[in-house]
Design brief:
Layout lengths: L1 H26 L8 E12 L5 E5 L4 E8 L1 H7 L6 E4 H5 L14 E5 L12 E6 L2 E17 L2 E2 L6 E3 L3 E3 L2 E7 H4 L5 E3 L2 E2 L7 E8 L6 E3 L2 E6 L1 E3 L1 E14 L6 E3 L2 E9 H4 L2 H5 L2 E5 L6 E5 L2 E3 L5 E6 L3 E5 L1
Parallel strand pairs: 1-4, 7-12, 8-13, 18-21
Antiparallel strand pairs: 1-3, 2-7, 3-6, 5-7, 7-11, 9-17, 10-16, 11-15, 12-14, 14-16, 18-20, 19-25, 20-24, 21-23, 22-25
Length: about 325
Amino acid sequence: MYKQYKIFKNFYFIFLLLSFILIVTLIIPGCDKKPVETNLLLPVEFSSIPSNLILTSPLDEKIEIRVSGDIDQIEAIKNLNLKYFVDLYTDLASDPAGEKNYLDPRIYYLPVLEKRIFVPPGVKILMVKPAYIKVNLEKKVIKSFPVTVPYVGKEAAGYVALSARIEPEKVMLTGPESIIRSIQTIKTKPIDLTNIKESFKKKIPVELQGLNTKSNPRIITVYIPIEKIQTTKVFEKLPVELKNARHGCSVNPSTIMLTIKGGHDILNKQETKENIKISIDVKGLKSGVYVRRAVIDLPLGLIMTDAEPEIFTVTIE
């Protein structure tokens, strides 16, 4: 009887042990998962930059860490948007308690501290690099600069763009002393004049060309005046018409030569010459010889600068 009880007891123990293993497997999934490793890049974020200084490097520094954990933890940590924070006063001032309340403009090397990298419990940091971050602090300078507007493209035929009128004419730049000292003038982004015929106004940003500077204002107003190209052309042998003339009237000479100034496009149109009218009105004149000036009627936008001859002889029989 005792022997049967002992056998039963052993089977019962084995049954309980197998049941426990099964329950642990079902209730605590993943407990037997092996740790995995991965590399992460953490952006460096700087704070407490003195108002009289400006950070010139690094501008987009990142540190690399290698971490270890189970697969779920590793996947979760990738979504945490981890950053490495640097407080310049705390890290650089010799006495963070308060005796030194300024920093000198120069290059500093800051150690990268693993304790500042906050990872979830169970995740281990295996590697951090680089060991130091190079920080360059320069004196901040504010200076006024004139603004120029570059043009690209070709205006429509017969038109020309004059110098832009800019509002405001100057902008204030804030940046590192080494950069501000090298700047002579500030440009906007280029303005395209391709086939332009009319003046126009446009708001356009100041072009800082990737410099570590800020502009005030950042957007300026630009007025681009477009004018017709003024040129001069000579029209020869234009006929002189006698208005209200009766049979037997004549004019000598019967043609005139005009020098006319105007837009290049108008002067070179075929119909422009046809629309120039020169006339002498002889209404009410009796028979005889008269000296008269001609009336010259030009198309809109044209100006006569010279005429030859200026005096005509009109004969009425």
